[in-house]
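Team,

Forwarding the record for the chain on the shared tracking sheet. I've put the sequence and predicted structure together so nobody has to dig through attachments.
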Amino acid sequence: MKKVRSVITLTLALIVGLLVGARAFLPWEEIAELAFLKLSSRAPSSITLRSDEFFVRGLIPSPGVKDFEVKSFMGAVKIGSLSVTPVVVGSLTRLAPTVKVKMERSVATVGGGAISFDGEMILSLRSGRLSVEDIDITGGLVAKGYLDISLETSKIIKADMTLKGPNELDGVFSAASAMMPLKRGSDGVWSLKREEAK
């Protein structure tokens, strides 16, 4: 048991050391900007992405963007600060690259109304899927739960989420329910549930 702990401790120390070294010598702002441009180029033509500034925080590199904006025909979302932080222990326990995404000072504009919210979630890539876990969004929009998305088909593999927002969002949720198993409860809370096919 002591040998296992020693190996885990040494592995963590090496990973942290590599990340700290990378923080000092790699141009993280430029890397973040290139990643953003790649994401923008892959977005559907009906969706536009924009950001004013790229930054890196922390000893372990945590890249991010300021005033990140997503626009579509259904409305717009502007995130004052969006940061991505590597989760070293989570990556080891999941055996998959894992990051924590944090959104601050966010505003969704739908149907002429503005909805403020903040939130965070854990993202990991594994076996052809993107797992979004520990979703915790609070404010005018509230979302809790998890979902897994296929990287090949972009469809939801499994999910267990609840969403609640002002009446302005009901039209958005209703439209989304035509494409995914999203249902409105009598209490006004929307639920997204899907069990993984065996």
